[in-house]
Amino acid sequence: MKFIAPSILSADFSRLGEEISAVENAGADWIHIDVMDGRFVPNLTYGPIIVQAAKASCRLDLDVHLMIEKPDGLIPDFVTAGADLISVHAEACTHLNRTIHLIRDLGARPGVALNPATPLSAIEWVLEDLDFVLIMSVNPGFGGQAFIENSLDKIRALKQIITQRGLSTLIQIDGGVNGKTIATIADAGVDSFVAGSAIFGSADYRATIADFRDKIKGNAKARD
Ligand code: DX5
Ligand code: ZN
């Protein structure tokens, strides 16, 4: 199964509930919520109250991407607010193993995000504990940036490790996903596709998500 996760970072915040319902009705699988603290990344966004508002606006799983330093203190609040999946950055956690287990013990599905410059070795000893790995294909902080091409090699290398170890860990990609890049990204082995500007900046969310699915499937067929 492949998951399309629209990032509300590019939604119209004056109509956030409607925007979330619109992507749910357009066929989205998860809602991706980018939490930024102005320290780990040079931008500030939103906290648990927006997760709570998103929970009230749809039935989809909420995929909360924490771009914040030392997130442990806030994780319980995000779970209480309705986060189903929570990713933390390897670069932002002093005790990554502890943070991952905190997320799972609270009942959410843990993921670890890696910045473009961070090697896969950062998750070597926690991979078995994760539901997903988020490969950042832009430097986190802003929507609408260009896809960093060598992320494809990183995805292929991660896919190989997951297969070798016999794991079912999902690979998520975040940054620069659009109609031009998604087929190649899917072919590299990605399971979950975050897209902000390419979905919320389009005129027809349903058509954009359908086009993404066609391109993901097209590549699966070409391989078989
Ligand atoms: C960037 C965020 C992304 C962002 C992606 O720091 O993590 O989720 O919304 O935006 P696009 O899809 O526009 O590259
Ligand atoms: Zn994100």
How does this model look, in words?
- Helix content is 36%, strand content 19%.
- It contains eight helices and eight strands; from the N terminus they run βαβαβαβαββαβαβαα.
- The protein has helices at 16-25, 48-57, 75-81, 96-105, 151-164, 182-188, 197-200, 205-223; strands spanning 3-6, 30-36, 61-67, 85-89, 109-114, 132-136, 170-174, 192-195.
- It has an eight-stranded parallel beta sheet with strand order 1-8-7-6-5-4-3-2.
- Helix 1 (16-25) crosses helix 2 (48-57), helix 2 runs parallel beside helix 3 and helix 6 packs across helix 8 (205-223).
- Bound molecules: D-xylitol-5-phosphate and zinc ion.
- D-xylitol-5-phosphate (DX5) binds at residues 7, 9-10, 32, 34, 65, 138, 140-141, 143-145, 174-177, 194-198.
List strands and helices in order, with pairings:
Elements: E1 3-6, H1 16-25, E2 30-36, H2 48-57, E3 61-67, H3 75-81, E4 85-89, H4 96-105, E5 109-114, E6 132-136, H5 151-164, E7 170-174, H6 182-188, E8 192-195, H7 197-200, H8 205-223
Parallel strand pairs: 1-8, 2-3, 3-4, 4-5, 5-6, 6-7, 7-8
